[in-house]
Automatic annotation (TrEMBL):
It comes from the Eukaryota. GO terms for molecular function: protein-cysteine S-palmitoyltransferase activity. This is S-acyltransferase. It is an enzyme of class 2 (transferase). The DHHC domain is required for palmitoyltransferase activity. Its main location: membrane. It is a multi-pass membrane protein. It is found in: Endomembrane system. InterPro entries: Palmitoyltrfase_DHHC (IPR001594), PFA4/ZDH16/20/ERF2-like (IPR039859). The chain crosses the membrane at residues 30-49, 61-83, 175-198, 218-244. Residues 131-255 form the Palmitoyltransferase DHHC domain. It catalyses: L-cysteinyl-[protein] + hexadecanoyl-CoA = S-hexadecanoyl-L-cysteinyl-[protein] + CoA.
């Protein structure tokens, strides 16, 4: 029986609803994130907003305090869901290396296929180097990086966020920023309404701040919680406002902050904001619900080929190294390097025979 793409997916993702929803491997952290949002709002509605209703009797305006808190919370949770449950921009894997990049080398004692580790592409009229990903067997598009947590190459990779349990990339960055900024506004709202409740208590039967705070410890706890949370979500909002205005990603900012390389993607502050918020979200490049053809399920793994050195002064071969892909979590600045395999030592005629039998032709799958 034919299986669907998500059932055979080699990444570390979690799929629900027949491949319609895709989460990262740490999706359980969503329960913690949801609790940090919902529990304080429930306390606010029970111990603070309920008492503020009677302080705005005109047109029952006091109910707006309660309604706004509930509606705002639902809005934040929807943004969280849109961020964590969608394809962040995963680049489909190849079933074999791109054969158009192969070049046969017969000059050495062990002839074989040369395979470049990097190649240059043009971005806004400038030449930019892109790396080859051993895991996905493709040249990563510009601004793409491989997330070692999800084990996927993600377009316009920003970072892997453990709070939403998903990579942040080209297709969900907008929703991530809206989620963080909306959480900031929700914290400000709850803090302001709790402070207003303390003021009303002081105007009534509790003339001092201390007596008012003793009468409503829930309001005090909410004010402290929101103040601490603002340092996190508020600071994150400000940081991403800076990144958007300069058209950077978190990964680029942490990795290249010490370099003097120009930013090829900066189009000016206004155009950068337009690119993030006013452009259509690109459709997913993966159809996780589609059925996989039988020949794709049983295809033999690709044969290993000689790979060209990344630099001229680098030796043509060496001991194998474990593959570690590029990744960045907020606050970390880690650069990891892809593996290289040993060259196969086979004769010329034998190698040609292996190549002719194993290298797919022009009708092979490509990204």
């Amino acid at each position: 029986m034919a299986k669907r793409v998500y059932e055979l997916w080699k990444g570390n993702n979690i799929f629900l609803c027949g491949g319609r929803l895709i989460f990262g491997p740490d999706a359980k952290s969503l329960f913690v994130t949801v609790s940090l949002i919902v529990v304080p709002v429930i306390i606010f509605c029970i111990f603070v907003a309920r008492h503020l209703i009677h302080h705005f009797p005109s047109y029952n305006a006091g109910y707006a305090v309660l309604v706004v808190a509930i509606a705002f919370t639902i809005y934040v949770l929807i943004l969280l869901f849109l961020t964590s449950a969608r394809d962040p921009g995963i680049v489909p894997r190849n079933s074999h290396p791109p054969e158009e990049e192969f070049s046969y080398d017969n000059s050495s004692h062990t002839p074989g296929l040369q395979f470049p580790r990097t190649k240059e592409v043009t971005v806004n009229g400038m030449q930019v180097k892109v790396k080859y990903c051993d895991t996905c067997m493709l040249y990563r598009p510009p601004r793409c990086s491989h997330c070692s947590i999800c084990n996927n190459c993600v377009e316009r990779f920003d970072h892997h966020c453990p709070w939403v349990g998903q990579c942040i990339g080209q297709r969900n960055y907008r929703f991530f920023f809206m989620f963080v900024s909306s959480s900031t506004l929700l914290c400000i709202y709850v803090f302001a309404m709790s402070a207003l409740h303390i003021k009303f208590l002081m105007d009534d039967d509790y003339p001092t701040v201390w007596k008012a705070m003793k009468h409503s410890p829930a309001a005090v706890a909410l004010m402290i919680y929101c103040f601490v949370s603002l340092w996190f979500v508020g600071g994150l909002t400000g940081f991403h406002l800076y990144l958007i205005s300069t058209n950077q990603t978190t990964y680029e900012n942490f990795r290249y902050r010490s370099d003097s390389r120009p930013n090829y993607y900066n189009q000016g502050c206004i155009n950068n904001f337009v690119e993030v918020f006013c452009t259509e979200v690109k459709p997913s490049r993966n159809n996780f619900k589609a059925f996989v053809k039988e020949e794709q399920q049983t295809r033999a793994p690709p044969v290993s080929f000689r790979q060209a050195p990344a630099e001229e002064d680098e030796p043509p071969c060496g001991p194998p190294r474990a593959k570690v892909e590029d990744d960045l979590e907020i606050g970390d600045d880690l650069l990891k390097i892809s593996r290289r395999r040993d060259f196969e030592e086979v004769g010329d005629e034998e190698l040609r025979s292996v190549i002719s039998e194993n290298v797919p032709g022009s009708n092979s799958d490509r990204v």
